[in-house]
Structures are given as C-alpha cells and as structure tokens.
Amino acid sequence: MSAAGGAAPHRCGHVAIVGRPSVGKSTLVNRLVGQKLTITSSKPQTTRHRIVGILTEPGRQFVLVDTPGFQTLHRSRLNERLNRAVVDSLAGVDVAVLVVDGARLTQADRNVAALLPAGLPVVVAVNKVDALADKKALLPLIGGIAELRPFAAIVPVSAEKGTQIDALKEEIAKLLPEGPAIYGEDELTDRDERFLAAEFVREKIFRLLGDELPYATAVAIDRFEHDGPVRRIFASIYVDKASQRAILLGARGGRMKEIGAAARRDLEALFGGPVYLELWVRVKKGWADDAAALRRLGL
Length: 299
Ligand SMILES: Nc1nc2c(ncn2[C@@H]2O[C@H](COP(=O)(O)OP(=O)(O)OP(=O)(O)O)[C@@H](O)[C@H]2O)c(=O)[nH]1
Ligand SMILES: [Mg+2]
What we know:
Layout: E1 11-18, H1 25-33, E2 51-57, E3 60-66, H2 77-90, E4 95-101, H3 107-115, E5 122-127, H4 138-146, E6 153-156, H5 165-175, H6 193-208, E7 218-227, E8 230-239, H7 242-249, H8 254-271, E9 275-283, H9 291-296
Bound molecules: guanosine-5'-triphosphate and magnesium ion (MG).
Magnesium ion (MG) binds next to helix 1.
C-alpha cells in the first residue's frame, strides 16, 4: 500500500504478452484483468490487433499488451502486419510475458523467444497445465525453456482455470518500474466500444464457423449510436467471395442470427446495458491482401 512516509513506491509498467498462436495469451490477459476484453478461440491467430488490458491494484498498475500470435508458417500481407505488430509491441515495454503451451515446446516458441530484446526482463507462463495428464513432463519442458535465454521466472499456470495466476502476477509485479498509474483506476482497456463490438462479433465467427472461413472475414462497425440506455450497433462482415457469404448466412440466415445473438449477449455483459446489434455480410474480394482495405478496417 502506498501511504506517506517509507511505504513501498507505486509501480506501473507495460507488460507485453507474447507467444506463438493459440497458447492462451488472450485468455491470460482476460484472467489477469478479471474481465473478458480480448477475444479467444481454439483457432490460431484469433487476435489480430494489439489491445491493452489494465489491472489496477493498491500500489501498482499492470498495463497488459495482448498481441497477435507470432507466426512464421504462412505468408500474406495480413500475416506480415500481424508479425510487425508483435515486434512493435516489444519496443517500449518494461516486461514481457512469454506464454508457451505446457504440452510441448516448439520451434515456433524458440523463434518468439529469439525476438525478445536481450535487456528486456521476461517471465515465462507455461500455460494449460490443467490439460496435462502427467505433470512430471513439465520438468524437462521447463529445463528446455531455461536454456533459451535468461528468464526472471518460469511459472506453470492455467489461464483458463485460474491456477497460479497470483504467483505469475507477483513475478511480473517485481519487474514493474516505479512510477505513477498511467490509466484511471476504473479503466479496463485502451480500446473504445466500437472496437470491442467489432471484435466480439469476430470472436463468434471464429467460434461458430469451420476452419477456413474465419480467416476470410473482417468486421467493421458502420454505425454505433446511443439511444438512452440502449447501444445500437450496425456492423458489416466482409468476406472474399459470394459462396462464403452464403455459408456465413446459413439456411434462412440462421447462422448469422446465432452469431449476432452470441455477440450481443457478451456485449451486454461488457457494457452493462442493452444492445441492439444488426449485421450485414458484404463481399469484398481479396481484402486480406489489399493494403487499402486493411487500412480501412484498422488492421
Ligand atoms: N485447457 C486449457 N485451455 C486453454 C487455457 N488457456 C487458453 N486455453 C484455450 O486455448 C485456446 C487459445 O486461447 P487464446 O487465448 O485465444 O490463445 P492466443 O494465444 O491468444 O491465440 P492467438 O490470439 O490466436 O495467437 C482457446 O481455446 C482457449 O480456451 C488453459 O489454461 N487451459
Ligand atoms: Mg489472442
């Protein structure tokens, strides 16, 4: 607690959450903040945008920077932008948390570790330990991690179940620089409601559609209005081809209704008030490789 005279100084810093796709970076940010802010799904590369989650506690503030999964497998203009977002997010942070999956250490994990600047303090979160049948397998995995570079700490956690999250938080807190809070104590994210609305719609597309289609979609908010306590949100979902539009709509628009209803429920919980959500599906050929289209969509 920061009281006058001899009390511990206030700490505040930027903490980049990095790792290969699907290791649970966004789940971890949501767990640390205690609120669902950043979208998650079982499909790799769910996160496309840097988003900050803010955790304020007595005497300290963590500014957690969620990043897209760094990936080296597929080349496209979108992926180049995602990877650049990861590298850029490492500049100017005080601490990094490297998230790995407790099931295995891969070349992709090593590639991400190699990106971390030498002087940057790094804590490793070995995630998904709840899914391990044999916890003893963690010891050689942790040994392998320790060889990659010096780490401030290596903490096995489960972001989904909340296991060891306080231990991880304390390791990060030790590395936060002294300084006043950057954000107000009631602020949870640096993103506005429009951004969060578009992301929550995208999450439902990732969760409710097959393996290919989510990557061919982008969501843009056309209008966002406040009508008393009601938020009225009009959004477009962009796809590459007419055939994808048909799949997204589903028979008699059923799939689109399901996406809209699920997104609306989450948005009502986040905003704490009623939401009216209207979705259109629009065909925009080649949007993932069109620099101008990506800029318009804020990517
Ligand atoms: N069993 C288990 N699953 C987890 C845990 N944390 C995350 N997951 C699951 O792992 C999947 C990926 O989680 P995300 O948080 O979206 O992963 P990410 O690293 O942000 O992924 P990208 O943004 O795509 O790079 C989701 O299905 C999560 O529910 C965990 O502690 N245990
Ligand atoms: Mg993510």
